[in-house]
Design the sequence.
């Protein structure tokens, strides 16, 4: 779906014999457009939600890696202290 104004300009409405366009036809076409845009919004929202979940998983994995590295560093520092300050 493109620019809303462009789409509205391109819509063709049924005409009444007297009084211009058929109002019911206008509402039907507007509802159809609204449903199309609503579907696009829902698809986009689902995609964004999926991307957010992926990022949250990545963050959790990185936090786990950081925790593991901290633990290793602490073990290394303790071993160094137990060795009388000599580097291992």
Sequence:
């Amino acid at each position: 779906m493109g620019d809303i104004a462009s789409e509205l300009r391109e819509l063709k409405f049924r005409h009444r014999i007297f009084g211009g366009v058929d109002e019911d036809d206008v509402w039907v076409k507007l509802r159809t457009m609204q449903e199309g845009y609503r579907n696009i919004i829902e698809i986009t929202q689902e995609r964004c939600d999926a991307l957010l979940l992926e990022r949250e998983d990545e963050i959790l994995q990185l936090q786990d890696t950081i925790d593991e590295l901290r633990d290793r560093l602490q073990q290394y520092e303790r071993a160094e202290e137990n060795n009388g300050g000599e580097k291992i």
Q: What stands out?
A: The helical segments are 4-10, 23-82. The chain has a mean pLDDT of 89. Residues 4-82 form one domain.
